[in-house]
Amino acid sequence: MMVAGEASGDLYGGALAKALFAQEPKLAIIGFGGAAMRKAGVDVRFDITSLAVVGLLEVIAHGRAIFAAYRLAITLLREGVTILVLIDYPDFNLRLARIAKARGIRVVYYVSPQVWAWRSGRIKTIAQRVDQMLVILPFEEKLYNAANVPCAFVGHPLLDDLRPPSFASKKDYLAGLGLDPKGTTLAFLPGSRVREVLMLLPEMLAAAAQLREKIPRVQILVAVAPSLPIQWMHDRVAASPIPVRCVEDIYNVLGASDMAVVASGTATLQTALAGVPMIVVYKIAGLSYLIARRLVKTSSISLVNIIAGTSFVPELIQGAVSAERISDAMARLLTQPEVCERMKEGYKEIAAALGDPGVARRAAAIVLAEHR
């Protein structure tokens, strides 16, 4: 049984399931997931769209749906499950791990909770409930080894997903979308959750309108996450005075853009691996943010800066997520090429730290070793 709780977990789960079936074709996998896991052959018993929320108050607001999902997950564990693979989504998954351990089911945790950022005490809980950790960030293995938790660094799953754009010519691609081949193209990656997009995208669009007063021929490509309906995203950008196109292929968006504004999360690593200068934005409900700031131990919010150990990518957080601040930050990147070049040099170190391709294959081999 595999359990993911949001879009990135579904993406990683799909790749892992594909690798598991390649190594053990007779395997049966049930679980919680989305399109990627379903496409890989997982018998998805619960679509995770309703689970993808961020922030304490947002989780509380979705409490009924989350509790119903948890009860279903416990029921599914009775269907002859011999190994449980949990993918991120820690508050839900660590509770499920306790039930699985009580039933004698082996538990593998793929993609660690961010114990290095906040609530480090969860390592003790993990030690009690998890048989094998599979971590995707280079510094995580040391933390678990120190706590005597069986752990393996398998590399970051994005390395298996990374690919060049599908087009040969950026100018032809933009022209095919009805955009200016010689225009300044902005990539907007506003997140994979509805609430996240509603908080961030309006400020991004307003910032682009302000930027166009300084830099003419500005246009926008919005990356639409697999977890979001593209028509819903079209509706969100319909009133923009700036030319906007919504695209479901993130690598085409990044490959055709001069810079990016990115919601904090996995997409920051995708943008770094694609070599596109970026600004990171992060905003949640006010009270959730105040609580989080008291708990979080890291000075940076984005994975790129956390992995690098330095804030080389600009971050706009909470109240700083405004049209004016975003516009000013975009103008700085677009008019100061030396800043962009330094950022791209930093990206090379990020890429080197994330490991080597073949992540899903390595993770699958460890899961199957636990299964046997």
CATH architecture of the largest domain: 3-Layer(aba) Sandwich
- Could you name the CATH class of the largest domain? Alpha Beta
What is the number of independent domains?
2
Strand content: 15-25%
The percentage helix is 40-55%
Q: What is the strand arrangement across the widest sheet?
A: 3-2-1-4-5-6-7
Estimated radius of gyration: 21 Å
How far apart the termini lie comes to 15 Å
CATH superfamily (homologous) name of the largest domain: Glycogen Phosphorylase B
Secondary structure tally, helices: 18
List the helices and strands and how they pair.
Layout: E1 2-4, H1 7-23, E2 30-33, H2 35-40, E3 43-47, H3 56-61, H4 63-76, E4 83-87, H5 90-102, E5 106-110, H6 122-129, E6 132-135, H7 140-146, E7 151-153, H8 158-161, H9 170-176, E8 184-189, H10 194-211, E9 218-223, H11 230-237, E10 244-247, H12 250-255, E11 259-263, H13 266-274, E12 278-282, H14 286-295, H15 303-308, E13 315-317, H16 323-335, H17 337-353, H18 359-371
Parallel strand pairs: 1-2, 1-4, 2-3, 4-5, 5-6, 6-7, 8-9, 8-11, 9-10, 11-12, 12-13
Properties at a glance:
372 residues, alpha/beta, Rossmann fold, 2 domains, 7-stranded parallel beta sheet, 13 strands, 49% helix, globular
Q: Can you tell me about this structure?
A:
It contains 18 helices and 13 strands. The two termini are 15 Å apart. Residues 53-61 have low confidence and may be disordered. It has 372 residues and is α/β, with parallel strands linked by helices. The strands form two sheets. It has a seven-stranded parallel beta sheet, sandwiched between helices. It folds into two domains: 2-161 and 357-371, Rossmann fold (3-Layer(aba) Sandwich); 170-353, Glycogen Phosphorylase B (Rossmann fold, 3-Layer(aba) Sandwich), CATH 3.40.50.2000. Helix 4 (63-76) packs parallel to helix 5 and helix 5 (90-102) packs parallel to helix 6 (122-129).
